[in-house]
Structures are given as structure tokens and as C-alpha cells.
Amino acid sequence: MIGSSVSGNLPRTQELIAKTRAYDRAKLSDEELEAAYVEATKRVIEGQAKAGLSHVNDGLLKWQDLLRPFSQGLGGVEVGPMARWFNNNTFYKVPLVKGPITYKGPVTEGLGYRRLLPKGATLKAVLPAPYTFAVLATDCHYGDASKLQAAYAEALNQEARHLEKLGYGYIQLSDPALVYVTTKPTKKELKAYGKVLEVATSGLKAKTCLQTFFGDAGDILPEALAYPVSDLGVDLYETAPETLKGLKLKGGLSLGLIDARNSTIEDAGEITTAAKQILKTVNPKDLYVSTNCDADFLTWEKAEEKIGVLARVAENLRGGA
Q1: What pLDDT sits at residue 299?
Q2: What CATH number did the domain enclosing 42 receive?
Q3: In the predicted structure, residue 321 carries a pLDDT above the cut 70
Q4: Which domain holds residue 148?
Q5: What angle do CA 15, 16, 20 make, to 5 degrees?
Q6: Closest by Cα among 108, 224, 237 to 168
Q7: Could you tell me the pLDDT band of residue 320, with boundaries at 50, 70 and 90?
Q8: Domains: count for the chain
């Protein structure tokens, strides 16, 4: 199959931004803020559905950052100080691991709008992968990175199973730290990471994708080809297409063809040509075209335009052009 989706969260609309600021100044009630979130979520879902994306998420508009729901929702973890999100002008709160990580119940459910998602599309969940969570957290308990990854993977698996029961058919594990230049693992750590991902994906019937971005995916090859995930995601604005030449994939490939860190709108024809060049030497079981990373670096209006390009590329690759 040839699928299409946004690789992560979507930007808040200007209306929602204004409402959240008013709420922070005590000029808006809880009920009015919730109504604003619902309205904005409907808009970003409609934007994906109208464009014809095969995999749709609810935008993750309530998420303050990728890690925050797990910092707040897992036992043994607290919300720590603010830190820069890789080499972007955005920030996240550092998870502080103060004790054994335990799963206390659904972590993301109260932050999502499953009821608003369309029935025709595959529902996509986005969760922080074990390596990225462990690298970006401050460990005050385990004293061993592999133990921290394994403990978090257990909790992550329970959250993924919960989301699967809610109807999510595709679960993305976002792992930018796995390829980012200053956080990427050693070859030994790369090999060991497969065992951690076995824990994270154990028992899942939903498809899974290890989505990398902010770095060169060539640095995790060939080890990542053996990971127990359905698909491998690559940021093509950080990874040279030649890196993928002749890869022996056991599953699918998610190509980050649309740049979510740049407001320039791509040409669908040029992107289609680039994708076809890659596919001349790679034969993935499934192919997905996506943004290269989360889209919240853009305005909603720009993100919506890029979603349209993304959908046209997918259609072209299916034989429309």
C-alpha cells in the first residue's frame, strides 16, 4: 500500500492560540477553553481528511511537548525544568525519573479527541520512543540507561495496547534522539535497542513505525532494519536519498518528504520524482509519505497547504501521475 500522514503533531490554529493566552490571563473559563480545543481539533482533522490522507491523528493540540504526557502520567516520573528541543527554537520539560516507572492508567486519553476522528481513515497515534525518552530524561533512580529504557518500554507498551483497543491501527514511536548528532547511540547500544523495542511492541496487532528525524538515518543502519517494528521512518532533509539505495527492508518505509521546519511550499511533481528515484532501488512492503517531523513549527495555514502537497504526492505514486 501507499499511505500518507503527518509525522507527529499539528500546529494550533491562531484562534486557539489566542484563546489559550486569554485563559492564562484568567479571561476565559475552563469550559470556553475546552470548546476552543474541540473547535481547533475539528479543523485540523478536517484538513487531513479533506486532503485525503490515509492515516489521521487529532493534532495532539493539548500536548505541551512530546514527553509531557508521560512525565505527568507515569508513576515514578515528575515534570522537570525546561530545555531546548534539539536544535529548534522550541522547548520541552525534562522528565525527572525519581523512582520505578509504573503505568497508572491511560496516559494520553485525556489529551486526545478520539471521538472526533473520521471512521474511514486509519487512526494514528504518536508516542515518544524509549531511546528518546531515556536520553532526554534525567535519571535519578536507575543509574543505567538500558534499565531506564526497558522500564519505560513496559509502560509504553501498556499505553500502546490501550490505544489499540480504542481503535488506533497505526502507532508511531517518535525517536529523534536516535539519529540526532549529539545523542545518537553507539553501535553496541543500537544492537541492544532491538530488545527494548521488542518490549515496547509486544502483543500489538496495530502497525508500528519507528520514526526518526532531526538526523541522518544512515547512522542507525543496518541495525535498525532488524528492529521489531512494521515500518522505519526517515527524515529526507537530514538523510541523503543515496543512503537508502538497495536497502533490504523486511517491512515498510516512511519517507519524510515534506519539510515541516520550513514554510516554503513544495512542488508535488518534484517531490514525486524524488520519491520515484528512491523506489527504483528500494522495494518496501508498504510505502508511506509524510512530513519529515512534527508540523508544529509551522502555522496551521502553512501546514494545511503542505498536507495538500503530501496527499497529491501519495496519489501520484499510486499511479495518478
Answers
A1: 97
A2: 3.20.20.210
A3: no
A4: 2-320
A5: 125
A6: 108
A7: low
A8: 1
